[in-house]
Write a structure and sequence with these properties.
The chain is α/β, with parallel strands linked by helices. The chain has 3 domains: about 50 residues, no CATH class; about 130 residues, Rossmann fold; about 160 residues, NAD(P)-binding Rossmann-like Domain (Rossmann fold, 3-Layer(aba) Sandwich), CATH 3.40.50.720. The chain has 17 helices and 12 strands. The strands form 2 sheets. Strands 9-8-7-6-10-11-12 form a 7-stranded mixed beta sheet, with helices on both faces. A 5-stranded mixed beta sheet has the order 1-2-4-3-5, with helices on both faces. Helix 5 crosses helix 17 and helix 8 crosses helix 9. It binds NADPH dihydro-nicotinamide-adenine-dinucleotide phosphate (NDP) and (2Z)-2-iminopentanedioic acid. (2Z)-2-iminopentanedioic acid binds next to strand 3 and helix 15.
């Protein structure tokens, strides 16, 4: 049986043939397969049972029409999806994304990564992802509500507290989850933990809102500590200005680092003095309430500059945290960060760094936290929201914060277990470590089920 590069090539040839025109999905699988195939060489039982091949094939893919009426009375048509990827270790679990770029390639890459991420958390969650090619920008709240209600009017038949539990992602925050939960409850007459990221009044969990960004910084802190280094005193470049980016910047600031950039699809802002709590609160209000653009920051806070159409990786920094979207940090940008002295990268977004960029960081000895591990704090606290809903209780803020911190430390430990023996030699390779640790648990469960 083929092994090493030949096995990888054969596997990818088959995957690309079965999934034509899905470059993001190919990219995500390639990154995982490159690190899993050496592990399969040492654990042939998983190869014999075709576990990797089965993990790369969704349990099912649902696509549906979403019709809604805009404020002018025009009928609009979008396409909704839910990818139910793998439920070997728990109900399907993963976010919903509303963005014009959403298609099956993007959602399959996200659902595939979610399998490994959710396994890494140590909680009983399978993997899914969904969303629609709906563009929330410029829409009124009533339009958002009608879209969410129409979307849920189809989605409800595919989900449930023990079946599939969606949450937020790009373009889906507390407002959208509220509208969707309200519609689910209305259609099914069932009050259950079917979505996470809910409002605190109706079953939401404390710290879920902050969890992804905070968790990505905790993971960074764990990696730096293991390398004999620290977050404190370091300049950090952060991309994005949504849920993940603003909370990553907030935790960096709290731990004594100096985050100096944020961005959106229009460009990035650079504030060399660093963000304060007052500045971050202003940005959260801009994004979540006034629904404005990050460029407006520079009219409010002197000493800052806006760089239209650019990404923040040209600003010299020791820490980089891509927290916006996939493929927002390419090989040239990775080289620029390395040249400017970056020592650590922690991915808040999913697959923000191209595979070539990841290789460049690892080759240069940069401490690199891949998304599956680094941004798992969000879904981990979603898992804790599910537990609280099942038990019909709410845990306090201190308990939630401590559980998030502990889970990120445990994920770091799981990555170390395999990341010292596999991947790049002479370092802890968190990419290999996260992939193999995530794979091993799901693979063992699938083995127990036989051929299904
Ligand atoms: P938000 O919708 O809150 O914010 C998204 C941010 O990214 C915005 O600043 C947006 O700018 C920017 N962005 C989105 N698409 C693009 C693009 N194509 N080019 C440039 N900028 C873009 O989303 P989140 O903060 O929740 O998500 C950010 C990332 O984190 C995503 O990769 C998501 O999958 C990942 N993630 C999120 C989790 C969560 O709990 N929310 C959990 C784990 C990962 P603009 O307004 O201009 O579009
Ligand atoms: O990518 C992710 O992990 C998320 N968008 C969060 C998923 C969740 O179910 O909380």
């Amino acid at each position: 049986m083929a092994s090493g590069n030949e096995a990888l090539q054969n596997f990818m040839d088959g995957l690309e043939k079965r999934n034509p025109g899905e470059p993001e999905f190919h990219q995500a699988v390639m990154e995982v397969a490159a690190t899993i195939i050496p592990f399969l060489d040492n654990n042939p039982k998983y190869r014999e049972m075709q576990i990797l091949e089965r993990m790369a094939e969704p349990d099912r893919v649902v696509s549906f029409r979403v019709c809604w009426e805009d404020d002018q009375g025009n009928i609009r048509v979008n396409r909704g999806h839910r990818i139910q990827m793998n439920n070997a270790i728990g109900p399907y679990k993963g976010g919903l994304r509303f963005h014009p770029s959403v298609n099956t390639s993007v959602l399959k890459f996200l659902a595939f990564e979610q399998t490994f991420k959710n396994s890494l958390t140590g909680l009983p969650m399978g993997a899914g992802k969904g969303g629609a090619n709906f563009n929330p920008k410029g829409k009124s709240s009533n339009e958002i509500m009608r879209f969410c209600q129409s979307f849920m009017t189809e989605l409800y038949r595919h989900i449930g507290a023990n079946v599939d539990v969606p949450a937020g992602d790009i373009g889906v925050g507390a407002r959208e989850i509220g509208y969707m939960f309200g519609q689910f409850k209305r259609i099914t007459n069932s009050f259950e933990g079917v979505l996470t990221g809910k409002g605190l009044e109706f079953g939401g969990s404390l710290v879920r809102n902050e969890a992804t960004g905070y968790g990505a910084v905790y993971f960074l802190q764990n990696m730096l500590k293991a390398a004999g280094n620290d977050v404190s005193g370091k300049v950090a470049v952060v991309s994005g200005s949504g849920n993940v980016a603003t909370h990553a910047a907030e935790k960096l600031m709290q731990l004594g680092a100096r985050p100096v950039t944020l961005s959106d699809s229009g460009g990035y802002i650079h504030d060399p003095a660093g963000f304060t709590q007052e500045k971050l609160d202003w940005i959260k209000d801009l994004k979540n309430v006034r629904r404005g653009r990050i460029s407006e920051y520079c009219d409010e806070f002197s000493g800052s500059t806006f760089h239209e159409g650019k990404r923040p990786w040209e600003v010299p920094a020791e820490i980089a945290m891509p927290c916006a979207t996939q493929n927002e940090l390419n090989l040239d940008e990775a080289k620029m960060l390395i040249k400017n002295g970056v020592v650590a990268v922690s991915e808040g977004a999913n697959m923000p760094t191209s595979n070539e960029g990841v290789d460049a960081f690892l080759d240069a000895g940069v401490v690199f936290g891949p998304a599956k591990a680094a941004n798992a704090g969000g879904v981990a606290v979603s898992g804790l929201e599910m537990s609280q809903n099942s038990a019909r209780i709410s845990w306090g803020v201190d308990q939630m914060q401590e559980q998030l911190r502990q889970i990120m430390e445990d994920i770091h430990g799981r990555c170390e277990t395999y990341g010292k023996d596999y991947g790049r030699e002479g370092m802890t390779d968190y990419v290999a470590g996260a992939n193999i640790a995530g794979f091993a648990k799901v693979a063992s469960a699938m083995m127990a089920f036989g051929v299904v």
